[in-house]
Design the sequence.
């Protein structure tokens, strides 16, 4: 009976834990794309958790592009997926040791893009 009660509680409470789970992905994340020809591009994602829904924007400071709205942002099983249809771009990364280890895919090409959380001034 005790096991049944615990099981039922976990089923009913799991939706309430979802917004907390999304907080692991929320924040500002940056990384560098290594492109062919020795070029590199800094990429910054701003991931927000509002009322249990993720949204994100992307910056490419080296291209003077800021606030590009991602069409989709999801986080499940420690994996974030973000898509921007305008540029046929997708990022997918797995959260490991406080970093997203992943790939940026665009127009049939895929590039490593690992993201680290940007710390606010005064954070240690």
Sequence:
């Amino acid at each position: 009976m005790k096991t049944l009660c615990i099981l039922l509680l976990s089923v009913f409470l799991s939706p309430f834990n979802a917004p907390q789970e999304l907080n692991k992905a929320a924040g500002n994340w940056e990384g560098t794309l290594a492109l062919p020809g020795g070029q590199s591009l800094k990429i910054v994602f701003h991931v927000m958790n509002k009322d249990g829904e993720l949204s994100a924007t992307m910056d490419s400071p080296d291209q003077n592009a800021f606030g590009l709205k991602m069409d989709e942002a999801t986080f499940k099983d420690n994996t974030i997926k973000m898509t921007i249809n305008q540029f046929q771009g997708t990022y997918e990364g797995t959260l490991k040791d406080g970093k997203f280890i992943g790939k940026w895919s665009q127009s049939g090409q895929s590039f490593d893009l690992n993201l680290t959380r940007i710390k606010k001034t005064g954070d240690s």
